[in-house]
Amino acid sequence: MSLYKRLHEVQQDGSDADGGKPPSSTSGSGGLLAATKAARTGLAGRRDPVLDELRHRIHHSLIDELGPILYDSRLSEEDLRKKVHEQLIAALAQERAPLSAADKAQLIQDVSDDILGYGPIDPLLRDDDVSEIMCNGPDSVYVERNGRLVKDPVTFVDEAHLRRIIDKIVGQVGRRIDESSPMCDARLPDGSRVNAIISPLTIGGPFLTIRKFKADPLQVDDLIRFGTFDANAARFLQACVVGRLNVVVAGGTGTGKTTTLNVLSSFIPDGERVVTVEDAKELQLHQHHVLCMETRPPNIEGRGQVTIRDLVKNSLRMRPDRIVVGECRAGEALDMLQAMNTGHDGSLTTVHANTPRDTLSRLETLTLMAGFDLPVRAIREQMASAVDVIIQIARLRDGSRRITHITEVQGMEGDVITLQDIFLFDYSAGIDDEGRYRGVLRPTGIRPKFAEKLNSQGIKLGPETFAPTNAGEAEA
User: Do 234 and 287 sit in the same domain of this protein?
Assistant: First the structure.
């Protein structure tokens, strides 16, 4: 059965209740989405070339006819959708192509997505199984499903089509991308993180990468179920956040740093004033007293840029109890360390690094990027005093994301910052028949020095929290 027929049957069975109108490009119907996913999976690479050619022709015809109307802010979404639908019907009538009702419905859906939504990637954005979308030009789209990269059959009409989708995305958040500024970070209305880069920096077409934002953000119970950490480690991390310890979440790209930071932020008590600083807003804090800020790129004249460092400096004047920085990438690391050392205990941030020791080295390098000629020892003393806990995350070969270290920053010995692992991931448990790691995050048996500080605040961590276990005991 063809994709068009499957979709048509679903539409006729219930989703086409408005008298035969094409479904909205933002439709979230579970049945329609399921049929679309199944059909696209089964027909990967076997699309009808005649229908594709017709779709391309009608797409170009509508762009020529509608032109600036598509970007007219005075038109409501409903009026724009009505105009597009009218032009679609007229264009199909002029083609006089012998189309079945199912093919016609699918053609209208595809072109509506192209014009009103985000084109071919609209179904992928509605697919809960897809966590990341990577468009490597108009003819090559990859997605991440369950931690694995797979090629998807969807394609764009041409480079100009992909470029229009990129312009639409960045324009919605007041940003721009052109030859003078060919790279851009933005976000979708639902918070999904977007990166786009175009010619002359790219070869083979514009590149678009979207890291999807879950409408229902992951909670601590979800991470426990996924095996990122266990309930014992979760209680320990909750105690660290409630006890106002300064925490740095470290890991590589796509390891889940922001998700973990979001979960940690959920432990912050309701009565505190929290200021968040991000490149593009991703954190979802549900406390009542949260102030969110995001950076601004320079305008076409190269002016007006507001960096993370500017916002961190400004946040210090906003009487925050805690500061949460989405990621330290440059000189803002110095301002973050100073904030942690000057009465903003319990602050949180993330850093790109592969091990807890590398995290300190990276923070040291980022601090030097602030432009001050500071002695290395002074920087290390700042870090040893400011940072209490480092949470290291890794994406393992099986595609899973796991916390591999929870490490205490104990202080200085000479010119070296001393670290102590409190929890470690057990790689020795091996791999099961499906290639997944059997190991879990286990206590090392060492009680952290800051346990006394937590105890003085009424947060008691019993000896069972740090009692080491072997694989056999854990399974039992």
Answer: yes
Sign of CA dihedral 45, 47, 48, 49: negative
Q: Rounded to whole angstroms, how far apart are CA atoms 219 and 221?
A: 5
Q: Give the predicted TM-score (pTM) of the model.
A: 0.73
Domain count of the fold of the chain: 3
Please report the beta strands in 19-87, taking only residues with DSSP state E, as ranges in sequence order: none
Give tens-digit pLDDT for 184-237.
Answer: 888 888 878 899 999 889 988 899 999 887 767 788 998 999 888 999 999 999
Strand order across the 193-197 sheet: 148-152, 141-145, 130-136, 207-211, 193-197, 183-187
Q: Residue 334, CB half-sphere, CA atoms under 13 Å: how many? A: 18
Three-state DSSP state, 127: coil
Question: Within 10 A of 217 (CB to CB), how many other CB atoms are there?
Answer: 17
Q: Which spans in 67-188 are helix H? A: 77-95, 101-116, 122-126, 159-172
- How far apart CA 48 and CA 105 sit, in angstroms, is 15
**What is the extent of the structural domain holding 460?**
220-475
Same domain, residue pair 113 and 127: no
